Amino acid sequence: MLDNFPGRLLCIDHGTKFIGLATCDRIGLIATPYKVIKRKTRQVDFEQIKAIIQKEDIAAVIVGLPPRPHDFVGTSQSDIVRKWTKRLVKQLNVPVYHWDEGLSSYDAEVTMRETLGKSQPKRIDAHAAAVILQSFLDALREGQPWPKPIEP
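User: That's the sequence. What structure does it adopt?
Assistant: Structure tokens below.
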């Protein structure tokens, strides 16, 4: 259990075709896959996220941030997610944070194969979001401070 935990969190795993979502309990103990949104337009995607925040009484949003390769030239997936997050922040009334997503999709696929016997591509995004969120919760439990919220 975390002291002064704000309440339920929503984690977003941003992808080009799907957005994976995960939530945690009110005390920040366990992250669970929530839903996968099929991407439409940015505004439609944001409206769906806002509706979930309202419905689930979400206190803050965590967005998985892919690592930026050191010698990468051009626009990386990390750059795309940062820009998308800045736009999302302007639409929300809750704080939004980035968190390193590391190998969340790989970890989620391994977990799904171990528990379900096979990988299910549509569900992998929500499981990846749960891996990201659990990593965030574990870091807080180990004493790491909250990251700075994303500014609009």
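The mean pLDDT is 87.
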